[in-house]
UniProtKB/TrEMBL annotation:
Pfam family, one: Clat_adaptor_s
Record lineage: Eukaryota, Fungi, Dikarya, Ascomycota, Pezizomycotina
Superkingdom assignment: Eukaryota
Family stated for the protein in its record: Belongs to the adaptor complexes small subunit family.
Protein task: The coatomer is a cytosolic protein complex that binds to dilysine motifs and reversibly associates with Golgi non-clathrin-coated vesicles, which further mediate biosynthetic protein transport from the ER, via the Golgi up to the trans Golgi network. Coatomer complex is required for budding from Golgi membranes, and is essential for the retrograde Golgi-to-ER transport of dilysine-tagged proteins. The zeta subunit may be involved in regulating the coat assembly and, hence, the rate of biosynthetic protein transport due to its association-dissociation properties with the coatomer complex.
Name this polypeptide is given: Coatomer subunit zeta
Keyword flag Transport: yes
Subcellular locations according to the entry: Cytoplasm; Golgi apparatus membrane; Cytoplasmic vesicle, COPI-coated vesicle membrane
Gene3D superfamilies: 3.30.450.60
Gene Ontology cellular-component annotations: COPI vesicle coat; Golgi membrane
Region described as Disordered: spans on this chain: 35-56
GO annotation, biological process: intra-Golgi vesicle-mediated transport; intracellular protein transport; retrograde vesicle-mediated transport, Golgi to endoplasmic reticulum
Subunit organization: Oligomeric complex that consists of at least the alpha, beta, beta', gamma, delta, epsilon and zeta subunits.
Domain AP complex mu/sigma subunit: 52-165
Organism from which the protein derives: Lasiosphaeria hispida
Length: 204
């Protein structure tokens, strides 16, 4: 890590509607402390206090951001003293935002991981309706990518596995059974009958 870089690399992850600029999802990160840049005694720009502490300032930033990126053909730009990486997908715009001292390659990897994870998760086009209908899942996915501004994972396969991993019904049932109690024995017997009935219906 270079002297000007911080462990807290991501300032914000934002998803906007490319049609009207409305917010679909956003998460802004503020470092828990201000890191001092070695040899300077100053705080790097990337770890300064969040310049968008309330919804009003965030909305102004997001509106200007979409207006700026709508005129661009690339996927990186400087806006409001921030490095912005972005991708357009169907009717949404995905943004990963960092400070001027942050590594744009690292931020770009987060952006790609976000886009690819969404495609893997939904197995279809990533659009506004899908994201809104699966908001909780999208929020969980982003938490698996970045936590408090710290990049945790950029492998889409791993991210999606963590988001979609849910204990099976049988596993949950067994974990709650006490085999040494009378009720536990009855529960195990009932579970066995249920499984046997399933196997018989399947012709096994």
């Amino acid at each position: 890590m270079s002297p000007g870089m911080s462990l807290y690399s991501v300032n914000a992850i934002v998803i906007l509607s490319s049609d009207d600029g409305s917010r679909i999802f956003s998460k802004y990160y503020t470092p828990p402390h201000h890191a001092v840049q070695p040899g300077t005694g100053s705080t790097p720009a990337s770890t300064s206090q969040n310049p968008y502490p309330d919804k009003a300032s965030q909305t102004r930033f997001e509106k200007g951001l979409l207006a700026k990126t709508a005129k661009q053909n690339g996927d990186i730009l400087l806006y409001d003293s921030r490095i912005v990486l972005y991708k357009m997908e169907s009717d949404v715009a995905l943004y990963v935002i960092g400070g001027l001292d942050d590594n744009e390659v690292l931020l770009y990897n987060v952006l790609l991981a976000l886009r690819d994870s969404l495609h893997l998760l939904f197995k279809q086009s990533v659009d506004k309706r899908t994201i809104i209908e699966n908001y909780d899942l999208v929020a969980l996915l982003i938490d698996e990518l970045v936590d408090e501004g710290i990049i945790l994972e950029t492998d889409p396969t791993i991210v999606v596995q963590r988001c979609s991993k849910a204990p099976s019904q049988d596993t949950v049932s067994l974990s709650r059974i006490d085999p040494f109690s009378e009720q536990g024995v009855n529960n195990l017997a009932q579970l066995g009958k249920t499984k046997l009935a399933d196997w018989l219906r399947q012709g096994l």
